[in-house]
Amino acid sequence: MNPPTPSSTQVRTPAPWAIALLALGAFAWLDGFHLDLFRQLAAERQWQGGARLWALTVIGYGPQFVVVLGLARLLFGPGQTLYSLGLAPDRWRIGLLAAVACTAILPLGYALIAPLSLTPQFGSAVLRQALLSGVGEELLYRAFLFGLLFRYAGWGFLPAALVSALYFGANHLYQGQGLADSAAIFALTALGGLWFSWLYVEWRWNLWLPIGLHVLMNLYWDLFAVSDTALGPMAANLLRFAVIGLSLALTLRYARRRGGRLIVGRHWWWGGPARPD
């Protein structure tokens, strides 16, 4: 189930069970180590400003970029590293343009409910909370964990997507101020994880779309100071659900033009995608 590439050279991949073990093991280490190490060092050494941003880049997200790309290269060969992670260089334009179109309503809507937040720290916040988190989380949770389990290890969409989504939701629990608040943040972000996984598949393994959506949604959230957490007010959440609705309509239209959806029938539950595409 290798992805299509410009090269006809194929690398024999390990057995599905071996890919699943590698994906789960490597993810558990990355998800539980790199950001915790950054937070501990940042607190101990009181890094602030540029120093904190560089530390987050190198210590927090650097290992996951290196490990994910390195393992993809090891599993699928140098000619398919980017394709196996949904980062085909010839498909970034369509993915990012779709993300821009789906999120265009957010700045218009947020401008009505929240003030602009163009503080001196805004540039750093964009890099930290939009760019690094958007790219890093999509690469780790969607392309690596979910992608390897569903695309290559033969798991069904829902089992693979739920594993990724539950971890994704749990990773945002720290934002909650109480049990009810944490539960709502967990449910909202886990739902977002399921949504991103579905888009990743139905756009023919194009991670650029989830990356674009993730980065832009975080960017607009910070640009208008909507909320300090992922929960936000009701009006803001309705706008985000509108983005989901737009993306669903656009995705279904795209899938029809490409011969139909990839997740059908039993493949919701087991056996990987209906066809690797």
Compact description:
InterPro entries: CAAX_protease, Rce1/LyrA-like_dom. This protein has 277 residues and is an all-alpha fold. 69% of the residues lie in helices and 0% in strands.
Relevant terms:
single chain, 277 residues, mainly alpha, disordered N terminus, hydrolase, metalloprotease, CPBP family intramembrane metalloprotease, metallopeptidase activity
Give a written overview of the molecule.
Residues 125-219 form the CAAX prenyl protease 2/Lysostaphin resistance protein A-like domain. It holds the Pfam family Rce1-like. This is CPBP family intramembrane metalloprotease. One of its GO terms (molecular function) is endopeptidase activity. It comes from Lysobacter silvisoli. The radius of gyration is 19 Å and the shape is globular. It has a domain at 89-268. The model is unreliable at 1-9 (pLDDT under 50). The chain is mostly helical and 277 residues long. Helix 1 (16-45) runs antiparallel to helix 6, helix 2 (49-76) packs parallel to helix 6 (122-152) and helix 4 packs antiparallel against helix 10. The chain has ten helices and no strands. It has helices spanning 16-45, 49-76, 81-84, 92-103, 105-113, 122-152, 157-170, 179-202, 208-223, 234-257. Helices cover 69% and strands 0% of the residues.
